[in-house]
Amino acid sequence: RHLYINDQKKEIFCMSTSFDGLQFPVNPTTHKISTSQTGKAIIAEALSIVDNKASMEALADKNWRKHYPIYFKALVEHGIRSIKNPITIATQGLHKAHHSFEFYRQGQRYLLKDIMNDIERINLHTVQFKGQSQQAPEWYVPYQGQKLQGQALLDQIETWQQHGIIEPSHADALRAAAAHPEWFDLSDRTLVLFGAASEAGPLTWLAKWKANIVAVDLPNGRVWEKILNTIQQGNATLYAPCTEALTADTAITVLKDKLGADLLTQTPEIAHWLSEHQGQLDLAAIAYLDGEKHVRVAMAMDSIMQYVSEQKADTSLMFMCTPTDVYAVPKEVIAASEQKFIQRSKAQQIISKSISSLTAQHFFKQNLHHLIACDNGQEYGIADCLVVEQGPNYALAKRIQQWRATLARHNGQRVSINIAPSTTTHSVIKNPLLKAAFNGASLFDVESFTPDTTNALMAALWVYDLRHPQSVANPETPLEHPLELMMKGANHGGLWRVAYLARTALPFAALYGFADEKLALKKWTKRFKKST
Q: Do the beta carbons of residue 1 and residue 13 sit within 8 Å?
């Protein structure tokens, strides 16, 4: 069937289905969805120009769920080799993704790439809601029961840097933020939060910083009650989507059940609603969903960001990366990891070698310490911190965001993308294995953070990226390599500098974490470290 819009023929697909909104493609032969087949196809296309052999191997791989780290690492390896490759990879990967995912409405199937123009939309109205506080903007870092400000904050930043928990560039950004309290008055900016109520998001801080906050989250009374109460207690102004026009004096008890828009089913409505907003927008992709929904919401946010950026050229983008991924890193990070491996005590060497042998290197495999030459004359290493158990869908969702960030900055947009530390959010600690791994990670000098600490640090990093003229977020700041966009400002919690390949050490950390929960091993470990 064909549809004519503006005298152009557009193909749509009709089928009887209960699907609604953004979906993985249905296999025309089996009539089933395969997230693995789609993921393989996207990664293979991203690799196709830089390494056709690896691209074909990815397509043919019969055990994608186990082997996907091989191909994600290949993307980084080839990305390092040439300053042109990250742009090629991002362009290919995003093109394939937008031509693969589908969107369903009223029984009709569209390609995601066509929905902004081909679907008849229901207009969204804007509801404005102001906070009641008159307090001046303030920034501090909640940490282990303390409220870190001034010298205490600077001392803690120095401690984190000295212990390799944060990169020097992250520490420098935090110091600059502490030195410029005027940056935190955000009354001149309009910040859009996709997944506004996200536990790891900056809503609580923006609500204290006089920001103009455009909140996008599910139409859910509980979610919006949380958002509205947060705004009410602060000094910010909220702008929220609604399918009906409401009066300015509508009470919270009514508003909470009226506000919201679904990123997965109202993608084109949200995109057009934002593009009609007056003034510059800063778009933050912070929404998270479990499993394959995470890829779909990542694609929804990407589709909206792409459209709004085309309509409003001064739009900036913000992403938060996960530390459990694979990254290009400066060679000094590799040197630090190698030094840690060399400086292990005799007892550590014997124990780790024995366990590694017994488990066929499942535990304690040495980290990657070789360097890769780039055509810019520099050498970079790889920090492979992928955790296989998180699955290929999670890795794909985060890679889509990296691709958009890389491509957008290359095309002249301001892009804030920083690695956030492992954080004990509900979505993480509800998984007993991950919770135990976090509890035991200190055994390898890795630190996980509580949500309130992560929120404070990453919100400040976003402000730094928006305010500081020399931030790498600014497209006018020269980079020697496009992948430096992800290298700078990283708070990986120490994962980059671990002596062992992260996924071969974290399972042991989980065992240690489980045991510590029962036997209080950390207390004995501290005594052992002091005595040795």
A: yes
